[in-house]
Design goal:
The chain has helices spanning about 1-25, 30, 45-50, 55-60, 65-70, 75-85, 90-100, 115-125, 155-160, 170-180, 205-225, 235-240, 280-295, 300-310, 320, 345-350, 365-380, 400-415, 415-420, 435-440, 455-465, and strands at about 130-135, 140-145, 150-155, 190-195, 230-235, 245-250, 255-265, 265, 275, 330, 335-340, 390-395, 425, 455. The chain has about 475 residues and is of the alpha/beta class. The protein has four domains: about 1-125, no CATH class; about 130-240 and about 435-465, Nucleotidyltransferase, domain 5, CATH 3.30.420; about 245-280 and about 360-430, Nucleotidyltransferase, domain 5, CATH 3.30.420.40; about 280-350, ATPase, substrate binding domain, subdomain 4 (Actin, Chain A, domain 4, Alpha-Beta Complex), CATH 3.90.640.10. The strands form three sheets. It has a six-stranded mixed β-sheet, sandwiched between helices. Strands 6, 7, 8, 9, 12 and 13 form a six-stranded mixed β-sheet that branches. The chain has a two-stranded antiparallel sheet with strand order 10-11. β7 (about 255-265) and β8 (about 265) form a beta hairpin. α13 packs across α14. Residues about 10-30 have low confidence and may be disordered. The structure holds adenosine-5'-triphosphate. Adenosine-5'-triphosphate (ATP) binds next to α13 and α14.
Protein backbone atom coordinates (compact mmCIF):
# COMPACT_ATOMS: atom_id res chain seq x y z
CA UNK A 1 0.00 0.00 0.00
CA UNK A 2 2.76 2.40 1.03
CA UNK A 3 4.71 1.44 -2.02
CA UNK A 4 1.73 2.23 -4.24
CA UNK A 5 1.56 5.67 -2.64
CA UNK A 6 5.26 6.23 -3.22
CA UNK A 7 4.92 5.08 -6.80
CA UNK A 8 1.82 7.25 -7.37
CA UNK A 9 3.49 10.25 -5.91
CA UNK A 10 6.64 9.75 -7.96
CA UNK A 11 4.62 9.13 -11.07
CA UNK A 12 2.56 12.30 -10.66
CA UNK A 13 5.76 14.15 -9.88
CA UNK A 14 7.30 12.80 -13.08
CA UNK A 15 4.21 13.74 -15.08
CA UNK A 16 4.25 17.20 -13.64
CA UNK A 17 7.93 17.33 -14.57
CA UNK A 18 6.90 16.67 -18.18
CA UNK A 19 4.02 19.12 -18.05
CA UNK A 20 6.07 21.84 -16.48
CA UNK A 21 8.74 21.54 -19.16
CA UNK A 22 6.03 21.88 -21.79
CA UNK A 23 4.00 24.65 -20.21
CA UNK A 24 6.57 26.97 -18.79
CA UNK A 25 10.04 27.12 -20.12
CA UNK A 26 11.76 26.37 -16.82
CA UNK A 27 15.52 26.06 -17.23
CA UNK A 28 16.01 22.33 -18.03
CA UNK A 29 18.56 21.64 -15.40
CA UNK A 30 16.57 22.95 -12.50
CA UNK A 31 13.32 21.19 -13.46
CA UNK A 32 14.75 17.87 -14.58
CA UNK A 33 17.28 17.23 -11.84
CA UNK A 34 14.74 17.59 -9.07
CA UNK A 35 12.49 14.92 -7.60
CA UNK A 36 10.40 17.41 -5.69
CA UNK A 37 9.53 16.14 -2.21
CA UNK A 38 11.75 13.16 -2.72
CA UNK A 39 14.80 15.40 -2.91
CA UNK A 40 14.73 15.22 0.89
CA UNK A 41 15.41 11.48 0.80
CA UNK A 42 18.95 10.15 0.60
CA UNK A 43 19.79 8.55 -2.73
CA UNK A 44 20.25 5.18 -1.02
CA UNK A 45 16.66 5.17 0.23
CA UNK A 46 15.30 6.15 -3.18
CA UNK A 47 17.17 3.29 -4.83
CA UNK A 48 15.91 0.93 -2.11
CA UNK A 49 12.36 2.01 -2.93
CA UNK A 50 12.86 1.37 -6.62
CA UNK A 51 14.25 -2.06 -5.82
CA UNK A 52 10.76 -2.99 -4.63
CA UNK A 53 9.40 -2.35 -8.10
CA UNK A 54 9.30 -4.61 -11.10
CA UNK A 55 12.02 -3.85 -13.69
CA UNK A 56 9.38 -2.89 -16.28
CA UNK A 57 7.97 -0.24 -13.89
CA UNK A 58 11.46 1.13 -13.34
CA UNK A 59 11.80 1.45 -17.12
CA UNK A 60 8.51 3.38 -17.32
CA UNK A 61 9.68 5.64 -14.54
CA UNK A 62 12.99 6.28 -16.27
CA UNK A 63 11.12 7.69 -19.28
CA UNK A 64 9.39 10.34 -17.22
CA UNK A 65 12.03 12.99 -16.73
CA UNK A 66 15.76 13.48 -16.52
CA UNK A 67 15.98 13.12 -12.75
CA UNK A 68 14.01 9.88 -12.76
CA UNK A 69 15.96 8.64 -15.76
CA UNK A 70 19.18 8.97 -13.86
CA UNK A 71 17.67 7.41 -10.72
CA UNK A 72 15.78 4.53 -12.35
CA UNK A 73 18.54 3.93 -14.88
CA UNK A 74 21.30 3.74 -12.30
CA UNK A 75 23.62 0.75 -12.55
CA UNK A 76 23.12 0.03 -8.87
CA UNK A 77 19.42 -0.63 -9.41
CA UNK A 78 19.92 -2.78 -12.51
CA UNK A 79 22.74 -4.76 -10.95
CA UNK A 80 20.21 -5.58 -8.23
CA UNK A 81 17.68 -6.75 -10.85
CA UNK A 82 20.36 -8.81 -12.61
CA UNK A 83 21.26 -10.36 -9.25
CA UNK A 84 17.68 -11.57 -8.94
CA UNK A 85 17.98 -13.63 -12.13
CA UNK A 86 18.60 -17.37 -12.13
CA UNK A 87 22.19 -16.98 -13.35
CA UNK A 88 24.75 -15.87 -10.77
CA UNK A 89 25.67 -12.20 -10.84
CA UNK A 90 29.41 -13.03 -10.87
CA UNK A 91 28.91 -15.02 -14.06
CA UNK A 92 26.79 -12.31 -15.67
CA UNK A 93 29.34 -9.64 -14.76
CA UNK A 94 32.25 -11.75 -16.01
CA UNK A 95 30.49 -12.52 -19.29
CA UNK A 96 29.29 -8.97 -19.92
CA UNK A 97 32.69 -7.42 -19.22
CA UNK A 98 34.99 -10.05 -20.75
CA UNK A 99 33.08 -11.88 -23.47
CA UNK A 100 30.60 -9.36 -24.88
CA UNK A 101 32.58 -8.49 -28.01
CA UNK A 102 33.21 -12.08 -29.08
CA UNK A 103 36.59 -13.48 -30.01
CA UNK A 104 39.31 -12.07 -29.92
CA UNK A 105 38.34 -11.12 -26.38
CA UNK A 106 38.28 -7.47 -25.43
CA UNK A 107 37.62 -6.32 -21.88
CA UNK A 108 35.16 -3.52 -21.27
CA UNK A 109 37.44 -0.81 -19.95
CA UNK A 110 35.89 1.34 -17.25
CA UNK A 111 37.60 4.51 -18.51
CA UNK A 112 36.50 4.50 -22.11
CA UNK A 113 33.01 3.01 -21.91
CA UNK A 114 30.57 2.75 -19.09
CA UNK A 115 28.38 -0.32 -19.31
CA UNK A 116 24.69 0.46 -18.80
CA UNK A 117 23.27 -2.50 -16.89
CA UNK A 118 19.78 -1.25 -17.63
CA UNK A 119 20.55 -1.76 -21.33
CA UNK A 120 22.29 -5.09 -20.57
CA UNK A 121 19.17 -6.28 -18.71
CA UNK A 122 16.89 -5.30 -21.58
CA UNK A 123 19.13 -6.87 -24.21
CA UNK A 124 19.52 -10.11 -22.25
CA UNK A 125 15.75 -10.40 -22.07
CA UNK A 126 15.62 -10.20 -25.89
CA UNK A 127 18.35 -12.81 -26.54
CA UNK A 128 16.85 -15.86 -28.27
CA UNK A 129 16.84 -19.22 -26.57
CA UNK A 130 19.57 -21.39 -28.09
CA UNK A 131 20.59 -25.02 -27.87
CA UNK A 132 23.90 -25.84 -26.19
CA UNK A 133 25.55 -29.14 -27.07
CA UNK A 134 28.71 -30.28 -25.33
CA UNK A 135 29.60 -33.44 -27.18
CA UNK A 136 32.07 -35.12 -24.86
CA UNK A 137 33.78 -38.25 -26.14
CA UNK A 138 32.14 -40.31 -23.37
CA UNK A 139 29.04 -38.31 -22.46
CA UNK A 140 27.21 -35.63 -24.38
CA UNK A 141 25.31 -32.92 -22.50
CA UNK A 142 22.61 -30.89 -24.22
CA UNK A 143 19.95 -28.38 -23.24
CA UNK A 144 18.45 -24.95 -23.71
CA UNK A 145 20.39 -21.82 -22.84
CA UNK A 146 17.55 -20.38 -20.72
CA UNK A 147 17.46 -23.50 -18.52
CA UNK A 148 19.56 -23.88 -15.39
CA UNK A 149 21.28 -27.09 -16.50
CA UNK A 150 21.38 -29.56 -19.41
CA UNK A 151 18.09 -31.34 -20.01
CA UNK A 152 19.72 -34.51 -21.26
CA UNK A 153 22.84 -36.61 -21.41
CA UNK A 154 23.76 -39.40 -23.83
CA UNK A 155 26.56 -41.93 -23.81
CA UNK A 156 28.26 -40.46 -26.89
CA UNK A 157 30.67 -43.23 -27.79
CA UNK A 158 28.27 -46.07 -27.10
CA UNK A 159 25.51 -44.48 -29.20
CA UNK A 160 27.35 -42.73 -32.00
CA UNK A 161 30.95 -43.98 -32.03
CA UNK A 162 33.82 -41.54 -32.30
CA UNK A 163 32.31 -38.15 -33.12
CA UNK A 164 35.79 -36.65 -33.20
CA UNK A 165 36.33 -38.23 -36.59
CA UNK A 166 34.60 -35.91 -39.07
CA UNK A 167 32.42 -38.42 -40.90
CA UNK A 168 29.36 -36.56 -42.16
CA UNK A 169 26.82 -39.35 -41.61
CA UNK A 170 27.97 -40.00 -38.03
CA UNK A 171 27.88 -36.33 -37.05
CA UNK A 172 24.50 -35.97 -38.72
CA UNK A 173 23.07 -38.92 -36.78
CA UNK A 174 24.49 -37.42 -33.59
CA UNK A 175 22.85 -34.00 -34.08
CA UNK A 176 19.56 -35.41 -35.45
CA UNK A 177 19.24 -37.64 -32.37
CA UNK A 178 19.84 -34.72 -30.01
CA UNK A 179 17.33 -32.45 -31.77
CA UNK A 180 14.76 -35.26 -31.72
CA UNK A 181 15.33 -35.91 -28.04
CA UNK A 182 14.93 -32.24 -27.27
CA UNK A 183 11.92 -32.03 -29.59
CA UNK A 184 13.24 -28.91 -31.28
CA UNK A 185 13.46 -27.88 -34.92
CA UNK A 186 17.10 -27.14 -35.80
CA UNK A 187 16.06 -24.12 -37.88
CA UNK A 188 14.43 -22.33 -34.95
CA UNK A 189 17.40 -21.22 -32.83
CA UNK A 190 21.18 -20.71 -32.79
CA UNK A 191 23.37 -23.60 -31.64
CA UNK A 192 26.35 -23.41 -29.32
CA UNK A 193 28.54 -26.45 -29.79
CA UNK A 194 31.79 -27.45 -28.07
CA UNK A 195 34.72 -28.47 -30.23
CA UNK A 196 36.30 -31.67 -28.87
CA UNK A 197 39.76 -31.69 -27.34
CA UNK A 198 41.74 -33.49 -30.04
CA UNK A 199 44.53 -32.82 -32.57
CA UNK A 200 46.41 -30.67 -30.06
CA UNK A 201 49.72 -30.23 -31.83
CA UNK A 202 50.85 -27.04 -33.46
CA UNK A 203 51.70 -28.82 -36.70
CA UNK A 204 50.15 -28.11 -40.09
CA UNK A 205 48.52 -31.54 -40.20
CA UNK A 206 46.93 -31.10 -36.74
CA UNK A 207 45.67 -27.67 -37.80
CA UNK A 208 44.18 -29.19 -40.94
CA UNK A 209 42.47 -31.94 -38.88
CA UNK A 210 40.96 -29.36 -36.52
CA UNK A 211 39.76 -27.26 -39.44
CA UNK A 212 38.29 -30.35 -41.08
CA UNK A 213 36.39 -31.33 -37.94
CA UNK A 214 35.02 -27.82 -37.39
CA UNK A 215 34.00 -27.51 -41.04
CA UNK A 216 32.28 -30.91 -40.92
CA UNK A 217 30.31 -29.88 -37.79
CA UNK A 218 29.28 -26.57 -39.40
CA UNK A 219 28.37 -28.28 -42.69
CA UNK A 220 26.12 -30.78 -40.93
CA UNK A 221 24.42 -28.11 -38.83
CA UNK A 222 23.88 -25.67 -41.70
CA UNK A 223 22.57 -28.46 -43.93
CA UNK A 224 19.96 -28.94 -41.19
CA UNK A 225 19.06 -25.25 -41.59
CA UNK A 226 20.42 -24.08 -38.24
CA UNK A 227 20.44 -20.25 -38.52
CA UNK A 228 23.70 -19.57 -36.64
CA UNK A 229 26.41 -21.61 -34.92
CA UNK A 230 28.88 -20.73 -32.20
CA UNK A 231 31.65 -23.35 -32.04
CA UNK A 232 34.14 -23.03 -29.18
CA UNK A 233 36.84 -25.36 -27.86
CA UNK A 234 35.64 -27.48 -24.92
CA UNK A 235 38.54 -26.43 -22.63
CA UNK A 236 37.93 -22.74 -23.39
CA UNK A 237 34.27 -23.18 -22.41
CA UNK A 238 35.34 -24.79 -19.12
CA UNK A 239 37.68 -21.84 -18.49
CA UNK A 240 34.86 -19.33 -19.10
CA UNK A 241 32.60 -21.29 -16.75
CA UNK A 242 35.22 -20.71 -14.05
CA UNK A 243 35.03 -16.99 -14.95
CA UNK A 244 38.58 -16.89 -16.28
CA UNK A 245 39.92 -15.95 -19.68
CA UNK A 246 43.47 -17.19 -19.11
CA UNK A 247 44.85 -20.18 -17.25
CA UNK A 248 45.53 -23.87 -17.57
CA UNK A 249 42.52 -26.16 -17.99
CA UNK A 250 43.01 -29.71 -16.73
CA UNK A 251 40.28 -31.77 -18.36
CA UNK A 252 39.97 -35.27 -16.94
CA UNK A 253 38.27 -36.72 -19.98
CA UNK A 254 36.70 -40.04 -20.70
CA UNK A 255 39.82 -41.73 -22.07
CA UNK A 256 42.59 -39.15 -21.68
CA UNK A 257 43.56 -36.22 -19.47
CA UNK A 258 44.32 -33.04 -21.38
CA UNK A 259 46.24 -30.09 -19.96
CA UNK A 260 45.50 -27.02 -22.03
CA UNK A 261 47.20 -23.61 -21.61
CA UNK A 262 44.86 -20.80 -22.66
CA UNK A 263 45.75 -17.11 -22.94
CA UNK A 264 42.94 -14.57 -23.47
CA UNK A 265 40.61 -17.31 -24.70
CA UNK A 266 43.14 -18.75 -27.17
CA UNK A 267 44.59 -22.25 -26.81
CA UNK A 268 48.37 -21.84 -26.75
CA UNK A 269 49.25 -24.85 -28.88
CA UNK A 270 52.67 -23.36 -29.63
CA UNK A 271 53.41 -23.58 -25.88
CA UNK A 272 52.22 -27.19 -25.77
CA UNK A 273 49.14 -29.14 -24.70
CA UNK A 274 50.03 -32.09 -22.45
CA UNK A 275 48.11 -35.34 -22.71
CA UNK A 276 48.09 -38.19 -20.17
CA UNK A 277 46.93 -41.43 -21.70
CA UNK A 278 44.21 -42.42 -19.27
CA UNK A 279 41.00 -40.92 -17.94
CA UNK A 280 37.65 -41.62 -16.31
CA UNK A 281 37.34 -45.06 -17.86
CA UNK A 282 40.58 -46.15 -16.20
CA UNK A 283 39.45 -44.85 -12.80
CA UNK A 284 36.27 -46.93 -13.04
CA UNK A 285 38.29 -49.94 -14.23
CA UNK A 286 40.73 -49.59 -11.33
CA UNK A 287 37.95 -49.44 -8.75
CA UNK A 288 36.39 -52.50 -10.36
CA UNK A 289 39.70 -54.40 -10.00
CA UNK A 290 40.06 -53.32 -6.36
CA UNK A 291 36.50 -54.42 -5.58
CA UNK A 292 37.12 -57.79 -7.20
CA UNK A 293 40.41 -58.19 -5.25
CA UNK A 294 38.49 -57.49 -2.05
CA UNK A 295 35.68 -59.91 -2.95
CA UNK A 296 33.04 -57.23 -3.28
CA UNK A 297 30.57 -58.62 -5.79
CA UNK A 298 28.50 -56.51 -8.18
CA UNK A 299 26.43 -57.15 -11.28
CA UNK A 300 27.21 -54.24 -13.55
CA UNK A 301 29.81 -51.61 -14.29
CA UNK A 302 27.10 -49.06 -13.62
CA UNK A 303 27.31 -50.04 -9.94
CA UNK A 304 31.07 -49.46 -9.88
CA UNK A 305 30.65 -46.10 -11.59
CA UNK A 306 27.96 -45.03 -9.13
CA UNK A 307 30.15 -46.03 -6.18
CA UNK A 308 33.06 -44.10 -7.69
CA UNK A 309 30.92 -40.99 -8.13
CA UNK A 310 29.47 -41.15 -4.62
CA UNK A 311 32.06 -42.64 -2.30
CA UNK A 312 35.49 -41.96 -3.84
CA UNK A 313 37.71 -39.00 -3.04
CA UNK A 314 41.34 -37.90 -3.27
CA UNK A 315 43.42 -37.95 -0.09
CA UNK A 316 45.48 -34.90 0.77
CA UNK A 317 48.17 -37.18 2.24
CA UNK A 318 47.97 -40.67 0.78
CA UNK A 319 50.29 -42.39 3.27
CA UNK A 320 48.48 -40.90 6.27
CA UNK A 321 45.11 -41.88 4.80
CA UNK A 322 46.16 -45.53 4.60
CA UNK A 323 46.21 -45.72 8.38
CA UNK A 324 42.82 -44.07 8.90
CA UNK A 325 39.39 -45.66 9.15
CA UNK A 326 37.81 -44.64 5.86
CA UNK A 327 34.93 -47.09 5.64
CA UNK A 328 31.69 -45.84 4.07
CA UNK A 329 28.60 -47.54 2.66
CA UNK A 330 25.84 -46.81 0.21
CA UNK A 331 22.83 -48.61 -1.20
CA UNK A 332 22.44 -49.14 -4.91
CA UNK A 333 18.89 -49.88 -5.98
CA UNK A 334 18.49 -53.45 -7.13
CA UNK A 335 22.00 -54.42 -5.96
CA UNK A 336 21.94 -53.75 -2.22
CA UNK A 337 24.46 -52.20 0.17
CA UNK A 338 28.15 -51.73 -0.66
CA UNK A 339 30.94 -50.85 1.73
CA UNK A 340 34.25 -49.44 0.53
CA UNK A 341 37.25 -48.40 2.58
CA UNK A 342 40.75 -47.88 1.09
CA UNK A 343 39.37 -48.20 -2.44
CA UNK A 344 37.65 -44.89 -1.83
CA UNK A 345 40.90 -42.92 -2.09
CA UNK A 346 43.10 -45.45 -3.88
CA UNK A 347 41.01 -44.96 -7.04
CA UNK A 348 41.76 -41.24 -7.36
CA UNK A 349 45.35 -41.80 -6.22
CA UNK A 350 46.25 -43.27 -9.62
CA UNK A 351 46.04 -39.71 -10.97
CA UNK A 352 49.10 -38.91 -8.83
CA UNK A 353 50.68 -42.37 -8.82
CA UNK A 354 49.73 -44.06 -12.12
CA UNK A 355 52.06 -46.96 -11.27
CA UNK A 356 49.52 -48.12 -8.63
CA UNK A 357 47.42 -49.16 -11.64
CA UNK A 358 50.44 -50.59 -13.46
CA UNK A 359 50.73 -47.61 -15.82
CA UNK A 360 53.91 -45.84 -16.92
CA UNK A 361 52.19 -42.52 -17.51
CA UNK A 362 53.10 -39.07 -16.24
CA UNK A 363 51.37 -38.12 -13.00
CA UNK A 364 48.85 -35.27 -12.99
CA UNK A 365 51.02 -32.81 -11.06
CA UNK A 366 54.09 -33.57 -13.19
CA UNK A 367 52.14 -32.91 -16.38
CA UNK A 368 50.64 -29.66 -15.07
CA UNK A 369 54.07 -28.54 -13.80
CA UNK A 370 55.58 -29.30 -17.20
CA UNK A 371 52.89 -27.23 -18.88
CA UNK A 372 53.56 -24.34 -16.46
CA UNK A 373 57.26 -24.59 -17.15
CA UNK A 374 56.63 -24.29 -20.90
CA UNK A 375 54.31 -21.32 -20.33
CA UNK A 376 56.97 -19.65 -18.18
CA UNK A 377 59.69 -20.24 -20.78
CA UNK A 378 57.50 -18.90 -23.56
CA UNK A 379 57.34 -15.51 -21.74
CA UNK A 380 54.15 -14.50 -23.53
CA UNK A 381 53.13 -11.73 -21.15
CA UNK A 382 54.90 -9.19 -18.99
CA UNK A 383 53.82 -10.43 -15.58
CA UNK A 384 54.04 -14.17 -16.33
CA UNK A 385 51.25 -15.20 -14.00
CA UNK A 386 48.44 -16.02 -16.44
CA UNK A 387 49.17 -19.76 -16.27
CA UNK A 388 49.08 -19.94 -12.46
CA UNK A 389 45.33 -20.41 -12.37
CA UNK A 390 44.52 -24.06 -12.93
CA UNK A 391 40.89 -24.88 -13.74
CA UNK A 392 39.70 -28.46 -13.30
CA UNK A 393 37.11 -29.80 -15.74
CA UNK A 394 35.47 -33.13 -16.62
CA UNK A 395 33.35 -35.46 -14.50
CA UNK A 396 36.26 -37.12 -12.70
CA UNK A 397 37.56 -33.73 -11.63
CA UNK A 398 34.54 -33.68 -9.28
CA UNK A 399 36.32 -36.15 -6.97
CA UNK A 400 36.34 -34.36 -3.59
CA UNK A 401 39.81 -33.27 -2.49
CA UNK A 402 41.33 -33.28 -5.99
CA UNK A 403 41.88 -29.52 -6.25
CA UNK A 404 43.51 -29.32 -2.80
CA UNK A 405 45.80 -32.27 -3.48
CA UNK A 406 46.87 -31.00 -6.90
CA UNK A 407 47.64 -27.60 -5.44
CA UNK A 408 49.70 -29.19 -2.67
CA UNK A 409 51.65 -31.39 -5.11
CA UNK A 410 52.31 -28.43 -7.39
CA UNK A 411 53.61 -26.35 -4.47
CA UNK A 412 56.04 -29.15 -3.60
CA UNK A 413 57.03 -29.95 -7.15
CA UNK A 414 57.40 -26.56 -8.85
CA UNK A 415 60.50 -24.35 -8.48
CA UNK A 416 59.91 -21.47 -6.05
CA UNK A 417 60.08 -18.96 -8.91
CA UNK A 418 56.87 -20.39 -10.37
CA UNK A 419 54.90 -21.90 -7.47
CA UNK A 420 54.08 -18.58 -5.82
CA UNK A 421 50.43 -17.71 -6.52
CA UNK A 422 49.41 -21.05 -8.04
CA UNK A 423 45.75 -21.83 -7.36
CA UNK A 424 43.61 -24.76 -8.46
CA UNK A 425 39.88 -24.18 -9.03
CA UNK A 426 37.52 -27.19 -8.79
CA UNK A 427 34.95 -27.64 -11.58
CA UNK A 428 32.43 -24.84 -11.06
CA UNK A 429 29.45 -26.79 -12.41
CA UNK A 430 30.55 -30.38 -11.90
CA UNK A 431 30.31 -32.68 -14.87
CA UNK A 432 28.49 -29.99 -16.90
CA UNK A 433 31.23 -27.35 -16.66
CA UNK A 434 31.83 -26.90 -20.42
CA UNK A 435 28.06 -26.80 -21.04
CA UNK A 436 27.80 -23.93 -18.57
CA UNK A 437 30.60 -22.09 -20.37
CA UNK A 438 28.39 -22.29 -23.47
CA UNK A 439 25.49 -20.97 -21.42
CA UNK A 440 27.49 -17.90 -20.37
CA UNK A 441 28.11 -17.05 -24.02
CA UNK A 442 24.59 -17.79 -25.23
CA UNK A 443 22.95 -15.54 -22.64
CA UNK A 444 25.22 -12.56 -23.34
CA UNK A 445 23.38 -9.32 -24.15
CA UNK A 446 25.22 -9.24 -27.48
CA UNK A 447 24.48 -12.86 -28.47
CA UNK A 448 24.33 -14.22 -31.16
CA UNK A 449 26.10 -11.36 -33.00
CA UNK A 450 29.80 -11.50 -32.24
CA UNK A 451 29.99 -15.20 -31.35
CA UNK A 452 28.15 -16.91 -34.17
CA UNK A 453 28.70 -17.62 -37.79
CA UNK A 454 25.48 -17.54 -39.82
CA UNK A 455 24.53 -19.96 -42.56
CA UNK A 456 25.00 -17.22 -45.17
CA UNK A 457 28.46 -16.24 -43.87
CA UNK A 458 29.55 -19.88 -43.78
CA UNK A 459 28.36 -20.58 -47.33
CA UNK A 460 30.03 -17.42 -48.64
CA UNK A 461 33.28 -18.32 -46.88
CA UNK A 462 33.16 -21.88 -48.23
CA UNK A 463 32.59 -20.59 -51.80
CA UNK A 464 35.57 -18.23 -51.50
CA UNK A 465 37.83 -21.07 -50.35
CA UNK A 466 37.12 -23.19 -53.43
N1 LIG B 1 31.13 -36.77 -8.86
C1 LIG B 1 31.93 -37.52 -9.61
N2 LIG B 1 33.03 -38.08 -9.07
C2 LIG B 1 33.84 -38.84 -9.83
N3 LIG B 1 33.64 -39.10 -11.12
C3 LIG B 1 32.57 -38.56 -11.71
C4 LIG B 1 31.66 -37.76 -11.00
N4 LIG B 1 30.68 -37.37 -11.84
C5 LIG B 1 30.96 -37.92 -13.04
N5 LIG B 1 32.10 -38.65 -12.97
C6 LIG B 1 32.73 -39.44 -14.02
O1 LIG B 1 33.08 -38.62 -15.11
C7 LIG B 1 33.09 -39.41 -16.28
C8 LIG B 1 32.45 -38.64 -17.41
O2 LIG B 1 33.11 -37.43 -17.52
P1 LIG B 1 32.72 -36.39 -18.63
O3 LIG B 1 31.25 -36.31 -18.77
O4 LIG B 1 33.46 -35.15 -18.32
O5 LIG B 1 33.30 -37.09 -19.91
P2 LIG B 1 33.39 -36.52 -21.38
O6 LIG B 1 32.96 -35.07 -21.43
O7 LIG B 1 32.67 -37.45 -22.25
O8 LIG B 1 34.94 -36.65 -21.61
P3 LIG B 1 35.85 -35.95 -22.71
O9 LIG B 1 36.39 -34.73 -22.03
O10 LIG B 1 36.88 -36.99 -22.97
O11 LIG B 1 35.01 -35.62 -23.90
C9 LIG B 1 32.34 -40.71 -15.98
O12 LIG B 1 33.26 -41.75 -15.90
C10 LIG B 1 31.75 -40.42 -14.60
O13 LIG B 1 31.71 -41.61 -13.81
Amino acid sequence: MNLRKVWGSMWSRSNSCKDSTKAIQVPRSSSSSSLGAFDQLPMDILVQILMLMEPRDAVKLSLACKALKSLAGSNRLWIFYLQCLQESWDSIFFAETSLRYGYPLRMVSSESEELSFMRVYGQRAQVPDSIIIDGGSGYCKFGRSKNASPSGRSATFLEFGNIESPIYARLQQFFVTIFNRMQVKPSMQPIVVSLPLCHHDDTESAKASRRQLKTAILNVLFDMNVPAVCAVNQAVLALYAARQTSGIVVNIGFQVITIVPILNGKVMRQVGVEVIGFGALKLTGFLKEKMQENNITFHSLYTVRTLKENLCYVALDYEAELSRDTQASMEILGEGWFTLSKERFQTGEILFQPRLAGMRAMSLHQAVALCMDHCDEAGLTGDGSWFKTVVLAGGSACLPGLAERLEKELQNYLPSSICNGVKVIPPSCGVDTAWHGGKLISNLSTFPGPWCITRKQFRRKSRLMW
